[in-house]
Design goal:
Structural class: alpha/beta
Number of domains: 2
Number of strands: 7
Radius of gyration: 26 Å
Mean pLDDT: 85
Distance between the termini: 81 Å
CATH architecture of the largest domain: 2-Layer Sandwich
Strand order of the largest sheet: 2-5-6-7
Helix content: 40-55%
Largest sheet: 4 strands, parallel
Order of helices and strands: HHHEEEHEHHHHEHEHEH
CATH topology of the largest domain: Ribosomal Protein S5, domain 2
CATH class of the largest domain: Alpha Beta
Low-confidence stretches: none
Number of helices: 11
Length: 294
C-alpha cells in the first residue's frame, strides 16, 4: 500500500509539473489555446497507451492510470479557453453617458467594448475599424492572460462562489446608500454591463434623489464605491475623458488614484475640462457643492 501511495504521489507531482509547464508556455504567449489543449490530448493518449502496454505491471499501470486521470481533469478545466481563442482584439468606443434620474446632471460614464474575432492582419483590422458605425478610441490586442482571466471568471460565475464586479458594485451601493437606490434598479438589472465604475455616480444620484444634494452643472463621474463609501481606481480613463469632452462636460470627477493619469491625458489630448479627484462619496458630494458655488 505504501508503495502504491508513493507511485500515485509521483504521478501527481509529474502531472502538476507538466501542467505548470504547459500553462506557463501559454501565459507567456509561446503557444496558443489549441496547442495547449492538443498537448493534453497527446499526453493523455500516451498515458492511455502506456496503461495498455503495462497492464500486467501493477506499479507502472497505477502510475499511468493516475496520470491519465489528472491530465483529463486539467484538460477539462482548461478546455473553455478554446472559446476565447478567436478573440484577437478589443476595441473601445463611444457610449452615450447616462443620467438615471433624468435631471441630476450627474452622468455615468461607460465605454463600449467590442471584441474583434479571427482578425490578425493589421490592414484587415484597420479596414474593420473603418467599417464601424461608432467612434473608436483605442484598440487593445487580446493576450493569453486576458483570455485566461475571461475563462476563469466564466467558470467562477458558473460555480457561483465569487460575485462579479458588477454584483459587488450593486451590493456596495445598496449597503452604503440603504433604500435610496430604487431609481437605479433597472440599471442594476441590465445584462449588458460589466465592471463596477458606476458606483460613485450612483452614490451622488442617490444623494440628489434623497434631497441631500443639488446640482445644476453637467458632470461626468466615474469611480467604484465600496460598502463604506470609499472610492477606488477604475480603468478606461482616457476613453471616459474623451466621452466627457465630446459631451462638453466642464467637469469630471474621478478617484484620487486616477487623478494623475487623467491630468496627463488632458494635457496630451488638449481637453478643456477640469478633472477633480476624490477619495470617497462624501468628498465627491463636497466637490459637487463647490462646483455649484462657483
Amino acid at each position: 500500500m505504501k508503495t502504491l501511495n508513493k507511485i500515485i504521489l509521483l504521478s501527481v507531482v509529474v502531472s502538476i509539473c507538466v501542467y505548470a509547464l504547459l500553462l506557463s508556455a501559454y501565459l507567456l504567449e509561446w503557444i496558443n489555446g489549441f496547442v495547449l489543449i492538443g498537448s493534453f490530448l497527446v499526453l493523455m493518449i500516451l498515458a492511455a497507451g502506456s496503461v495498455v502496454i503495462f497492464r500486467r505491471e501493477r506499479r507502472k499501470k497505477s502510475f499511468f492510470v493516475a496520470t491519465l486521470i489528472l491530465l483529463s481533469l486539467f484538460m477539462l478545466f482548461e478546455i473553455r479557453l478554446l472559446n476565447y481563442e478567436s478573440h484577437t482584439y478589443e476595441i473601445s468606443g463611444y457610449l452615450e453617458p447616462e443620467d438615471l434620474l433624468g435631471n441630476s446632471n450627474i452622468y455615468l460614464l461607460s465605454v463600449n467594448l467590442h471584441h474583434v474575432q479571427y482578425i490578425q492582419d493589421e490592414e484587415m483590422l484597420e479596414w474593420y475599424i473603418e467599417g464601424q458605425d461608432q467612434k473608436v478610441y483605442d484598440v487593445y490586442p487580446i493576450t493569453n492572460r486576458m483570455r485566461y482571466r475571461g475563462k476563469s471568471s466564466e467558470l467562477v460565475g458558473w460555480i457561483g462562489l465569487v460575485t462579479t464586479d458588477f454584483e459587488r458594485f450593486r451590493n456596495n451601493a445598496e449597503a452604503y446608500l440603504g433604500e435610496d437606490v430604487a431609481f437605479a434598479y433597472n440599471y442594476f438589472n441590465r445584462d449588458d454591463l460589466v465592471g463596477n465604475s458606476a458606483g460613485l455616480a450612483i452614490g451622488l444620484k442617490a444623494l440628489i434623489n434623497a434631497g441631500h444634494l443639488e446640482n445644476s452643472i453637467p458632470i461626468g463621474v466615474t469611480g467604484t464605491m465600496e460598502a463604506d463609501g470609499h472610492v477606488r481606481e477604475v480603468g478606461m480613463i482616457r476613453e471616459k475623458l474623451l466621452i466627457s469632452e465630446e459631451n462638453q462636460f466642464p467637469y469630471m470627477i474621478v478617484p484620487n488614484s486616477n487623478l494623475k493619469e487623467a491630468e496627463e491625458i488632458i494635457k496630451e489630448e488638449k481637453l478643456s475640462m477640469t478633472v477633480i479627484g476624490v477619495a470617497s462619496v462624501e468628498e465627491a458630494k463636497k466637490a459637487v457643492e463647490n462646483i455649484n458655488d462657483r
